[in-house]
Design brief:
Double Stranded RNA Binding Domain, five-stranded antiparallel β-sheet, 7 helices, 17 strands, 25% helix, 28% strand
């Protein structure tokens, strides 16, 4: 990644990388996350965050308390036979970090790439990959809504570059198929519109019960600071619940390489139970939900994979390559 940041590689260069190839990349919506992971640094599952930028133990504790695993998901195929994937350092144990600490998103580097159908079975392995460097042009970024200033900032850190492994010269070989832990966050956010009223007590109980059914032991804490809302957290899971408006977000730590199915089923259980609880509470309190299915966690659900690309939140993407992929899917759907 350093070579990309320094400008040592340019579009058209053929390069070889040793890296972890993964289908998981950044979630396609803005994140509304808790400012902390819970009551202590053990509330996040997975490895401890260690970064040499803050060697002091107090800063290290803050990094672990105030940073989350990056919410991730799966992009739909770009076109027939071409898949959007991500390359991480060969020793990476997480998809990335997001949070309050400065430069958190630079703790784990990643490069977008494109694989052919025959290369997809190699995902999840450490590979030696030979491919061609490509870049997102300024015109395409501007058309997608990126300002010239922001385009320049992402260009300087290499975020407009990708690696293409789809042509006849490209080659991807497994050098280690010893799968290891690789962590990320499963994420959902939304709002519920009511005709009538739903008590705050029922709203909070709906969340707490959904987390409990999935095996968590949630605690609820009220935020008395800048906004009147609530935090719900348990080891490996957390939620923000706004009381002035029925807006919420959920974030769950998930192991993606060895046991993604188990974590995905657990998160689906939370979402399904949450919507069931809200519907039942509305029935008891004579309220009617106008938008009963407003949980836009379609990013890792292949049956609904395109809806998030059409959502209003996707309009606010600031990753040039994701913007181009988003716009391509939107134009294809017309």
């Amino acid at each position: 990644m350093a070579a990309f940041q320094k400008g040592d590689v340019v579009a058209g260069d053929m390069i070889t990388l040793e890296c972890l190839a993964s289908p998981f990349g950044p979630f396609l919506r803005n994140h509304v996350l808790m400012p902390f992971i819970g009551t202590d640094s053990s509330m996040r599952l997975g490895p401890i965050i260690v970064h040499n930028q803050h060697p002091h133990p107090i800063f290290g504790l803050m990094e672990n308390m105030a940073n989350h695993w990056m919410p991730v998901g799966l992009l739909p195929p770009v076109c027939r036979g071409v898949h959007h994937v991500y390359l991480y350092p060969a020793d990476a144990m997480a998809s990335g970090v997001v949070g309050l600490m400065p430069n958190a998103e630079q703790f784990v580097v990643r490069l977008p790439a494109f694989f052919r159908d025959d290369q997809v079975p190699l995902l999840g392995n450490t590979v030696r990959a030979f491919g061609r460097v490509g870049v997102v042009g300024a015109e395409a970024a501007y058309e997608g809504g990126l300002s010239p200033e922001l385009f320049e900032s992402v260009r300087q850190i290499g975020r407009i570059m990708y690696i293409d492994f789809t042509d006849e010269y490209a080659e991807v070989k497994v050098i280690s198929n010893a799968h290891r832990e690789f962590w990320g966050g499963l994420y959902a956010c939304g709002h519920v519109e009511f005709d009538g009223e739903l008590s705050l007590k029922s709203w909070l109980e709906a969340f707490a019960d959904a987390a409990t059914v999935a095996g968590f032991s949630p605690q609820i804490m009220q935020n008395l600071g800048t906004w009147n809302g609530y935090f719900l957290f348990a080891r490996g899971f957390r939620a923000m619940i706004f009381s002035d408006a029925p807006v919420y977000s959920l974030h769950m730590d998930a192991e993606l390489s060895l046991d993604f199915g188990t974590y995905k089923r657990k998160f689906d259980t939370i979402l399904d139970k949450l919507l069931q609880n809200i519907n039942e509470a509305c029935t008891q309190e004579s309220a009617v939900i106008i938008n009963p299915l407003d949980v836009d966690f379609s990013y890792v659900d292949s049956t609904r994979a395109y809806s998030v690309l059409k959502s209003k939140s996707a309009d606010e993407l600031q990753d040039p390559l994701l913007m181009v992929v988003r716009d391509w899917h939107r134009s294809r759907g017309k």
